[in-house]
Amino acid sequence: xxxxxxxxxxxxxxxxxxxxxxxxxxxxxxxxxxxxxxxxxxxxxxxxxxxxxxxxxxxxxxxxxxxxxxxxxxxxxxxxxxxxxxxxxxxxxxxxxxxxxxxxxxxxxxxxxxxxxxxxxxxxxxxxxxxxxxxxxxxxxxxxxxxxxxxxxxxxxxxxxxxxxxxxxxxxxxxxxxxxxxxxxxxxxxxxxxxxxxxxxxxxxxxxxxxxxxxxxxxxxxxxxxxxxxxxxxxxxxxxxxxxxxxxxxxxxxxxxxxxxxxxxxxxxxxxxxxxxxxxxxxxxxxxxxxxxxxxxxxxxxxxxxxxxxx
Length: 311
Ligand code: NDP
Hints:
Layout: E1 2-8, H1 12-23, E2 28-31, H2 56-68, E3 73-75, E4 79-85, E5 88-93, E6 98-106, E7 110-112, E8 128-129, H3 132-135, E9 143-147, H4 151-161, E10 166-170, H5 180-188, E11 192-195, E12 200-205, E13 209-218, E14 221-225, E15 228-231, E16 235-237, E17 270-272, H6 286-305
Parallel strand pairs: 1-2, 1-6, 2-3, 6-17, 8-15, 9-10, 9-15, 10-11
Antiparallel strand pairs: 4-5, 5-6, 7-16, 12-13, 13-14
Helix pairs in contact: 1-2, 1-6, 4-5
NADPH dihydro-nicotinamide-adenine-dinucleotide phosphate binds near residues 45 and 150.
């Protein structure tokens, strides 16, 4: 069987692409594992129009249900490699199967950036976490730290302050890069203690995390006793599978896929949408990923039908 379109990724970009593809009646399937992608880890989304305040998980559930309404195929496999043979793409799965398709939308998203300090790997799941929504409730009335200075770090600190006794927010510069609104809310939250111009050098503990060592002293001490650490220092393009050879897909210096305004990559028939596409400093929100998903599906349809006029 040959598909019109395969969408790789189940985040806002992939799910929106599927809704549009269904409405264009493209024979398509989605590949992915994390329903809703990393957007579903957002505790609170207050800037997606139509929903004044909703959790990322709930919003993504709504995306997913709307996608399912059209009955696209969900292939619960992992894509290992993509190649192109004449006008057909071949996706090799982890089970060794080959999926054939005329077009592809890559909506793989990003993965958490790591601090790369001693103890980070050892204590993962034992006090170190990259997902406050998933693990936050484990730290009721405990002392925790959040590393980072962007929107994720500040929204996480705010969310965790509702659960924990105290939250240290540790950022390497003097002024947060997060939206002003989050900074104001952090300043108003008494449980959050800001540690600025400082970095975590090491994570220590026994069976569980109990201490972090700082680069510079905080209140005359170079370490802080904590029960948990949430690392929220941004993301890097997903390395889920080796996209480059044999496709020669063009990426920028930061590893993001280069696309034009139609979400086309340099490989005809291969589109990309959402956080996996560059440039690195573009606005990365659920609404922008979703819009790019729609644009990519529309242009996949245009490509398949060889339309030259506006859709
Ligand atoms: P960002 O890339 O915006 O911020 C990452 C932060 O981590 C920066 O402050 C950065 O420091 C810091 N950092 C990076 N590497 C290290 C390191 N090795 N050690 C210490 N600190 C480090 O990522 P976010 O996840 O915060 O946000 C990603 C995107 O998602 C953004 O576009 C954001 O606006 C959006 N978002 C929006 C939300 C909302 O509005 N509801 C919620 C969450 C995310 P430095 O500043 O020095 O570079």
